[in-house]
Amino acid sequence: VNNIKAVKPGSVTLNATYEGITGSLNLNVLKNPVDYINLTSSVDQARTGDVIQLKAVAYNKKGQILDNIPFEYSFKGKSFDKSNSASGLVINDGRFVADVSGNYLVSASIGNISVSKALNIYERNVKRDVVKVGTGLVNDKHTSDFWVFEGVDGRDYAVTGTWGADGTSYFWDVTDPANILKIDSVQVDARTVNDVKVSEDGRIAIISREGASNRKNGIIIIDVSNPRDVKIISEYTKNLTGGVHNLFIYQNHVYALSAGQKYYILNIEDPINPVEVGMFELGKEGQAIHDVWIEDGIAYSSNWRDGVYMVDVGNGIAGGSPSNPVAFGNYNYASGAHHATYPFKSKSTGKFYTVLGDEIFPNGIDVNTPNETAGFLHFVDFSDVDNPLEIARYELPGHGSHNYWIEDDILYVAMYSGGVRVVDISGDLMGDLYKQGREIGYILPGNKDGFIPFATMAWGAQLYKGHVFYSDWNSGIGAAKVMPVKPDNSKVNQYLN
């Protein structure tokens, strides 16, 4: 690609020649009708990560406004920290965000006419202490996913799965997060119980099976009305024998992945006799799925290279139901590593996002030594379902993403070897959230007595009744607390004019 700058009005012919073949293009260069530009901004000072809206208006020599001018926006700046350089992002609709505190000059130009405006950017200053509260140690096998729930007796409980082991799931009393107690367990024919979920009323748990000795995997349905004495109600294997990696329970229906290709929908109003009522697949060669998450009657199907599919399973937006799932929205991205989806509506802006997470093991998985992970979270604005726009990312250098939770404009994300990170996602989102200083805090769950001692491998996170619960591949289940904001006695904003 070659860019050519026109310097004065007139006609010109452009020629391009390659190996004896020539092409020509005739252009008429017009005089720039713009005499001057007025540039305003939504604010003159902001924090790192705050999106500032720029508005440029062009005028001719008569002072008349000129419409439909394709302005080019740019910026430069100087960091308050002499060891750092100013950085940020500006896009063509005039939105600007800074990563680093400092003095910035934003500009709008068209041809040879430009105008600039000064902005002051200061630190976001959202740091808080995140402290470990309690641990339910599992160190004789790897731990997989978990779910925290309120039991029918009003106490708080959790269920955890295990990975690459003996098919055990553990049940915990987490009413006192500082004193997490193992209260029961079940063992099924499987090597891995990768996923566990609990019904909205706290009475039914479902667990997945992979690696069954008889090659009939499927799901197990458990009565958890008394978590201290759980009872297996039934198993279901039809169409699920190839292994169930992930599952979800929503309004008396189970959504269970089948051999990583599709998911089946089971009615469990009678949990002793589950009934298959529907199935969803992409119907294309090489189709693959890793996860499904349901919220407000919409299933978010995470399909690796095919990205996320939004599927109506009862919401009504596309006339779907559990027996007639209907896809109506899709977004994919280049890496093809799409592993999980979490939808949320921003409390501060009202915008609807889906957060799409990668899962990448560059060197594969080693069960006995710490692992290298990669990948990040993609924030996709789905406010217009037909035109989704990837607008931001959360990428922790050196660590890959896994499962996550969002509540009240705060992200709780398990970043494998990077631990559990707590991230401010309030306001408009744009650019690199990590560089913008939006991270509130983090914990590293690695335990000296873990399956792999001291090795953090955070699997998932869930905010529950004010505590951040998490599972860790090497140490079991734990709870943490994000502490109140401390008064800012630092001088991080001392340079603000």
What can you see in these coordinates?
- The protein has 497 residues and is mostly beta strands.
- The chain has 2 domains: 36-122, Sandwich (Immunoglobulin-like), CATH 2.60.40; 130-482, Methylamine Dehydrogenase, Chain H (7 Propeller), CATH 2.130.10.10.
- Helices cover 0% and strands 48% of the residues.
- It starts with 9 loop residues before the first strand and ends in a 15-residue tail after the last strand.
- The mean pLDDT is 96.
Q: Which descriptors would you attach to this protein?
A:
mainly beta; Immunoglobulin-like; 2 domains; five-stranded antiparallel β-sheet; 40 strands
CATH C-level name of the largest domain: Mainly Beta
The gross shape turns out to be: globular
Strand content: over 45%
The number of distinct structural domains comes to: 2
Quick one: how many beta strands?
40
CATH architecture of the largest domain: 7 Propeller
Supply the helix-strand structural class: mainly beta
Number of helices: 0
CATH topology call of the largest domain: Methylamine Dehydrogenase, Chain H
What oligomeric state do the depicted chains represent?
single chain
- Detail the poorly predicted runs: none
Helix content: under 10%
The radius of gyration over CA amounts to: 27 Å
Biggest beta sheet attributes: 5 strands, antiparallel
The CATH superfamily of the largest domain is identified as YVTN repeat-like/Quinoprotein amine dehydrogenase
Look at the structure and give the mean pLDDT.
96
Cα distance, first to last residue?
A: 43 Å
